[in-house]
Hints:
With 133 residues, the protein is an alpha/beta fold. The chain contains 4 helices and 6 strands; from the N terminus they run βααβαβαβββ. The chain has helices at 23-26, 32-38, 49-58, 73-81, and strands at 2-10, 41-42, 63-67, 87-93, 112-121, 124-131. A 6-stranded mixed beta sheet has the order 2-3-1-4-6-5, with helices on one face. The model has no long low-confidence stretch (mean pLDDT 87).
Amino acid sequence: MKIQVITVVSSDGNLVLDDPFDISIESGKFGIETLKKRADLILNKDSSLIALLEENRKASASNYFVKTTSLTFDFVKGLFLYNLVDELILYQIPSVKNIGFRLSELTNLPEWKLIEQQSINPRLFRLIYRRNK
Length: 133
């Protein structure tokens, strides 16, 4: 089982939970829609953490996807709490929020290894992290 969490962060490390996101984040070769198409199932706020824990023990080959928004934030926190997240995909935007939740409230970034980085445009980056094992 592989769970991908997609998160948009501002340059100061705050989560951007607004939906919909900027069009350049949603579409294109490195966009969220491309990632969604590769997923077997899109997780949402009503998805069961217990069922995911059970499936994780069975080591299935499923690929799950969840986008961090104001509606899914608590669910995503649970995924990190139970160490179910395999891949963290960050879209870093140039704005500064100075309010809201910080990425460090979800996870400890030193536990993750940067495996890929793309520049979507001169001001927008996609960073893909995998958990250190």
